[in-house]
Design brief:
The protein is built from 15 helices and 13 strands. The chain has 446 residues and is α/β, with parallel strands linked by helices.
Length: 446
């Protein structure tokens, strides 16, 4: 017996086509109006129970729908399957994810930054403790995933170099996969450092641009007060040809469609339209250090509305759209026993927003992991499958209950806890489909 998935979404599109999307599998396809009408007949038959007979035409469509899990065998319980995969990921020790901040120092003075002029570099003792931490787990590892963070990690590229050499040696000895990325402000991402990062196996870097030059230089100046935008753009011209570059644009209420368009024009003029990805990040007052910006911040539901407009501008200006409603088994590191953020002192954290705040540390890399620590359980205890609203949501596989920190640390209404996909899936599906259409047409011309 077959069932219709609870996670099917259908969006009317151009020329009578229907965009079909399944949130459990992530499958996306186009249906003709005739096929969608046939799907509705199939759904009606299956909803009546029993063992409905299917016409050859219906059976052919069912076979196609099964590939994307739009229909599925009733010996599978969708919720139980999702719960199992979620718990498997939460307690999996074969993959280790470490976000490492070799320094919390930064060369910028962003108005909303939580780092509060923190200084310091990782000591040799902490470096050895990180290597020892990984080596103790190496025999059972299938994958080690590293993300360099800060502060500005490139201020301590020598430490990154030292740690990476040891990580690569361990990967070779114990035969596990090694992947690495970086979050940087981009000011020090010059040719020399890019070539060095490639040698250190860094495959991608996330850079933040807070609008066009005139906005960015106001929001993200250097510590000495000088502008940073122009140098970052020059750096990206080379960096984007050697490693993957994603541009995060932190959005608050000061942004307009015109400002986003101005930024994209500047990126296009620099020759970056084809070589980078751009996405929009919600700027939140996540810590006491950035509470001064709270009045200028969107709540998630409001952000999702302006996000649609900004992606339309991306589409109109010919930039590729990388944002996809992809299924995920866990929302972030906070939901896994094998993911940690490590600061320069070796303190362990469960969220990017907590980095450097010793009161929110769950212990130190030099010590045994205490999974009963209050700061571990603070975020880990949330499971979307224990939330009745999440259980019946047809975007549960994508949202995963949303950000654990937003739930635990801010007194928000339930509707404000959901990921932006909850509020803008339908228009975003159309934008993504048009983006894929543009890419296909461009490929044909080449």
């Amino acid at each position: 017996m077959l069932k219709i998935s609870n996670y099917n979404h259908f969006q009317t599109w151009e020329n009578g086509y229907i965009i079909a999307y399944n949130a459990r599998s992530g499958a996306v396809g186009l249906m003709t109006a005739d096929n969608y009408a046939l799907y509705q007949k199939i759904a009606e038959k299956l909803s009546n129970g029993g063992n409905p007979g299917m016409t050859p035409e219906e059976q052919t469509l069912i076979n196609q729908l099964s590939y994307g899990s739009f229909v599925y065998s009733d010996d599978i319980d969708e919720i139980e399957g999702l719960r199992f995969q979620h718990n498997l990921a939460r307690y999996d020790s074969s993959e280790l994810g470490l976000t490492i901040a070799p320094t919390m120092a930064c060369n910028m003075a962003c108005e909303y930054c939580y780092e509060d002029n923190k200084k310091g570099r990782m000591s040799a003792t902490v470096i050895e403790s990180i290597i020892d931490f990984i080596e103790k787990r190496a025999k059972r590892l299938k994958k080690l995933e590293i993300s360099w963070y800060g502060g500005e990690p490139l201020l301590a590229i020598d430490i990154i170099d030292d740690l990476t050499r040891s990580f690569l040696d361990l990967a070779e000895e114990y035969k596990f996969e090694y992947t690495v990325s970086m979050i940087s402000n981009g000011y020090l991402l010059n040719k020399e450092n890019v070539d060095r990062l490639r040698d250190l196996k860094v495959s991608g870097v996330q850079i933040t641009l807070d609008g066009p030059a005139r906005f960015h230089n106001q929001k993200r100046p250097l510590k000495n007060g000088k502008p940073s935008f122009e140098t970052i753009i020059e750096n990206l011209k080379y960096a984007s040809t050697k490693i993957g570059v994603g541009i995060r644009v932190n959005v608050d209420k000061s942004f307009t469609n015109e400002i986003i368009g101005e930024l994209l024009d500047e990126l296009d003029k620099a020759g970056l339209r084809q070589t980078i990805g751009v996405y929009f990040g919600l700027l939140e007052p996540a810590t006491s250090a950035c509470a001064n910006i709270s009045e200028n911040c969107y709540e998630n539901s409001d952000f999702s509305k302006v996000e649609i407009d900004y992606y339309k501008i991306l589409l109109e200006k010919g930039f590729r759209i990388d944002k996809l409603p992809s299924p995920t088994v866990t929302f972030c590191m906070a939901q896994s026993i094998s993911s940690f953020l490590i600061d320069p002192d070796g303190e362990l954290y469960r969220c990017f927003n907590y980095a450097g705040d010793k009161a929110k540390s769950m212990g130190n890399i030099r010590d045994e992991i205490n999974y009963r620590h209050a700061n571990f359980m603070h975020l880990f205890r949330f499971e979307p499958f224990n939330d009745n609203t999440c259980l019946v949501c047809n975007l549960l596989p994508v949202c995963g209950g949303g950000c654990p920190s937003r739930r635990a640390d801010r007194d928000l209404d339930k509707e404000k806890l959901c990921d932006s996909w909850k509020h803008n899936l339908q228009p975003m599906l159309e934008i993504i489909a048009r983006s894929r259409q543009q890419l296909a047409q461009a490929a044909k011309k080449e």
